Amino acid sequence: MPRISVQVVAFFAFLALPLSYATAQPTPKPVIIEVDLNKEKGESKPIWAWFGYDEPNYTYMKDGKKLLTELAQANRVPVYVRAHSLLVTGDGEATLKWGSTNAYTEDKNGNPVYDWTIIDKIFDTYVERGMKPLAQIGFMPEALSTKPEPYRHYWKPDNSYGDIFTGWAYPPNDYKKFAELVYQWVRHSVERYGKAEVESWYWELWNEPDIPYWKGTTEEYIKLYDYTADAVKRALPTARMGGPEVTGPNSEKATAFFRAFMDHIVKGKNYVTGKTGSPIDFITFHAKGSPRVVDGHVQMNMGAQLRNIDKGFEIVASYPTLKNLPIVIGESDPEGCAACSEDFHPSNAYRNGTMYSSYTAASYARKQDMAEARGVNLLGAVTWAFEFEDQPWFRGFRDLATNGVDKPVLNTFRMFGMLPERRVEVNQRDLSYSFQKVTKESVRGEADINGYAAKGTREAAVMVWNYHDDNVPAAAAPVSVQIKNLTASRVLVQHYRIDQEHSNSYEAWKKMGSPQKPTPEQIALLEKAGQLELLTSPKWMSVQKGSLELPFELPRQGVSLIRVSW
């Protein structure tokens, strides 16, 4: 029998393949991202160094302290922290969507009793780490509520919001007593931390007063704002006071509330002084996206969040005397409920993995562009995500860590924290998504592959993401980052990565079999997997005519940070 050569066998095997395989596949065209270090765009504002959460008593618990330490260490600037329920009456028990400090009670004769013990534990935890409060003045102490019963709620992740807006959400029965509480709190803070420290904080009134977080009217909120702002300024004239923390301004109700508040600030009659207007040092509102499950997978809606941001900027810009004030987006997230777990809310399944990471990178990079386009002053955007003590591992809360183990999204903030001080121009040659297009359409066609770059005196860094609203498998994208006008002949290149294999404690946990009672050895491995990892070893590279080209593959929902130093 004649021998058949290997080449012949291979040839007939090739012919047997489907045409789609037999035909040579073209190599995907790389996405070219050009970074010109000579084209500065102003300050790289650390708008990402702001965080918040519902449960203030988690602050000083074991995992809360650990996470706050990591957030403080991840940023080159002081991190600001916003927490609900700092004036709520109770014993300090920590549970989902509830917290208390018992700062204000009254004796049997109706005289105020102030107790700063728990608030001090919270603020001490921040200050000890070089962090600063975005001090939320709220909610209503039981003794001051116009409808105190029922006061405490017992919310669970499968509940609707209907039963949480209890006695703490009502206006005060005595505005002067509430104002005196605020005055005493600010004065105590100055005595404890010093005038210079408290001057660096931000004070604000309430949360989302356009929905049942506030059971009063718009005018009652405005009245309370006047009393509160007056009290803050009496205690510390140089303190920074702001509001109104409305929900997404893209809704008619939120817009109406926002404009009523701003109109009062500019030309209303002050309830305390009788003069025109009310003091304000910064302006706040919220912006959320809207994910859903489509054909068995999570589909995000970044456009919905960005439209809320843009509407808020538009409203602020329409007030000439206020448009230059700092803006803090007091909650800026992919959706609304941090404590709504994946097991009851399938659309929140994005939270444990890299989709949350890439969404965060792509959305934060656009916020500064949007502010510049509207001519407003964006100071910060609060990520409303923290940690939930003693909950099941990777339950799918919107949190940065689970049981003390960092989730992939936290590594995006580590990357942001490594960006130098001056922003530089990024040019994506085949740009599919400008910030205007993402705002209008979200990311539903091609993937959004783009970057954000900044430089320092002897360093530069480029963050690159490969994001899509649909969380479905896709091939990795070839990317070429080209850095121009480097002033050194040799540079040290460090490439950090978040993807399925890097900086990803969730994938490591699944490979272990998803244990709900991991061993100490497994926890140590998970903690290591939760840290930001290098894709490759650092390497020195030669610069050719002031330029450096760095090609690599970036998986879908992956994020890279390339740091170049000399």
UniProtKB/TrEMBL annotation:
It holds the Pfam family Glyco_hydro_39. The active site is at E208. Residues 32-529 form the Glycosyl hydrolases family 39 N-terminal catalytic domain. GO terms for biological process: carbohydrate metabolic process. Residues 1-24 form the signal peptide. It comes from the Bacteria. SUPFAM superfamilies: (Trans)glycosidases (SSF51445), Glycosyl hydrolase domain (SSF51011). Keywords: Glycosidase, Hydrolase, Signal. InterPro entries: GH, GH39_cat, Glyco_hydro_39, Glycosyl_Hydrolase_39. Transmembrane segments: none annotated. GO terms for molecular function: hydrolase activity, hydrolyzing O-glycosyl compounds. Belongs to the glycosyl hydrolase 39 family. PANTHER family: ALPHA-L-IDURONIDASE. This is Beta-xylosidase. It comes from Salmonirosea aquatica. The lineage of its organism: Bacteria, Pseudomonadati, Bacteroidota, Cytophagia, Cytophagales.
